[in-house]
Amino acid sequence: MRVLALLLLLAACTPDFAAPSDVTDLRVLAVQAEPPEARFDPDAGVAEPVKVDVLAVDPSRDAGPQSIQLQICGPTDSRRCDEGPVIDAGTVPLSFTLPSVDATALLANDDLAGFGGIRVQLSFTVDDGSPKGPVHGDKVIIYSSALPPCPPDAGIAPSRNRNPALTGVLLTVAGQDAGAFAPDASLTVGTEYGLRPVLADGGEEDYCTVDLRGEVLQLREQAHYAFFTAPGGEFDSDTADEPLDGGAPPDGLTRFTPHADAGTIWIVVRDGRGGESWLERSWTASPDAGVSPTRRSSGRGGRARPGPR
Fold first, then answer.
1. Exposed e or buried b for every residue in 289-305, given b needs 16+ CB within 10 A?
2. Of residues 59, 142, 60, 160, the one with CA closest to residue 101
3. Is residue 243 a contact partner of residue 225, using CB atoms and an 8 Å limit?
4. CATH assignment, 18-146
5. Does 2.30.180.10 match the CATH number of domain 149-293?
6. Residue 299: its pLDDT value, please?
């Protein structure tokens, strides 16, 4: 009996860990570089400018983050500019243009010595005055001087990587079409919605690359999604891959349930080669007269999720 009582006590004291999709305070959700693969002239030692957008949000504070402290270096294991040559760019806004840099000057940390392009790491901190302090973010940009050759029979033209884009989100309820997840959508509290992100044409690119043996490979991207919600909603799955056949199950790639009268979600898409973008949707919700808006188990191992605050 004592053993049983001890087990029950431990179960009652098990902490309720928040899911990665739950955003309650300052977080960096994504960083987009445009282009994600930039042109570099090794003779002149300069590269084309790159536009950078940082998706940093803080639902706990009205203003949210406005700027970052940026450093530029070669890639490091810590993903911070704590070794090798470092360029200190100071304070920049969340959307800024990276100045043209001599990428070869940052090769000291590159284990691949520039193979497949020179990797330049952006390492930064974001601080909006939150009592929990600043958070770290990073992004690697590829600088290349030449396009990888494609086999003559590949049927694709050599090109640099482009960012994938999302054109919208489709909704289902109980496997039935419920239209598009429009900006400022009106939802029903306690209803589980299937979400299907919609990629723009060309969101998954065919491309050529060279492996370490010098052989040219023809590959195709597969888009990967990450889902995030401010307090007031719940995702049953934090991530999903774009189906290989382009379809989707009737209940979407993830399911979202609103538990409050308003909130915001973010969907980030990445192509696996450094390209990424995102879509943001704010929503309102009202109770369904026939459905009790009480919280349900999340399906994450039977753990209850924290309520909105």
1. eeeebeeeebeeeeeeb
2. 142
3. no
4. 2.60.40.1930
5. no
6. 41
